[in-house]
Amino acid sequence: MKLSSILLEVMQEIAIRPKKIFGQGMEHNVYPTSDPNKIVKVGETKYVKRWLKDFESKPEVFPIIYRKGISRDNNNLMWVVMEKVDTEQFEVDFDVLEDLLDEEAGFYGVLPALRAGIFNKEADKKIYSALLKRDEEIAEFYLKLKHVVAETLPFKKGLFKVYDFHRGQFGYDKDNNIKMFDY
């Protein structure tokens, strides 16, 4: 591929022009790209820099970062082209997990169960065994989600120090790995 073709593709991908918002968070907007497997996240530079280094350092649990830059029109805005994840199927699986944790393992909510599973091996065995009796796929989903949470969130004395942890912050990549795309 010629350099001029590559540059044109990059410029078309990152050009800031009026686009329909694909999604948004408290500190950013998300826009579609010409590639259905990628999105562009745009936010104030100071907020983007809070999570960007983490995302780049752990592509196995955060969406892959393809490109990033500062807006030509506003130095206070930063954009990041990243891997798009499937949130719809993740939310279905999360809801099933939440129901089974309540019915089978005695936990009301996924966060308390994950906290117990990460910090207490006996509780983790109890949770996994209870889930396994009812739904093997959801039991495996619990293990995958627990791994991602343990790898991505800061801890202090067994308590999560998180901002905005909920089913809407995760999704599946194209290989069905769980990724956390916002925190």
Number of E strands: 9
Rounded mean pLDDT score = 83
Shape: elongated
Distance between the termini: 37 Å
> What is the quaternary state of this protein?
single chain
Helix content: 40-55%
Structural class by helix and strand composition = alpha+beta
Strand order of the largest sheet: 1-2-3-5-4
Q: How many helix segments?
A: 6
- Helix-strand sequence: HEEEHEEHHHHEEEE
User: Main sheet?
Assistant: 5 strands, antiparallel
Domain module count: 2
Strand content: 15-25%
As a whole number of angstroms, the C-alpha radius of gyration is 19 Å
Low-pLDDT segments: 155-159
Produce the secondary structure layout.
Blueprint: H1 3-14, E1 23-24, E2 28-32, E3 38-44, H2 45-57, E4 65-70, E5 77-83, H3 87-105, H4 110-119, H5 121-134, H6 136-152, E6 155-156, E7 159-160, E8 170-172, E9 178-180
Antiparallel strand pairs: 1-2, 2-3, 3-5, 4-5, 6-7, 8-9
Helix pairs in contact: 3-5, 3-6, 4-5, 4-6, 5-6
Overview of this protein structure:
The chain has six helices and nine strands. The chain has helices at residues 3-14, 45-57, 87-105, 110-119, 121-134, 136-152; strands at 23-24, 28-32, 38-44, 65-70, 77-83, 155-156, 159-160, 170-172, 178-180. Helix 4 (110-119) crosses helix 6. It starts with a helix and ends with a strand. Mean pLDDT is 83; it is low at 155-159. By secondary structure, the protein is α+β, with helices and mostly antiparallel strands. The strands form three sheets. The chain has a five-stranded antiparallel beta sheet with strand order 1-2-3-5-4, with helices on one face. Helix content is 46%, strand content 20%. It folds into two domains: 3-83, Phosphorylase Kinase, domain 1; 87-180, no CATH class.
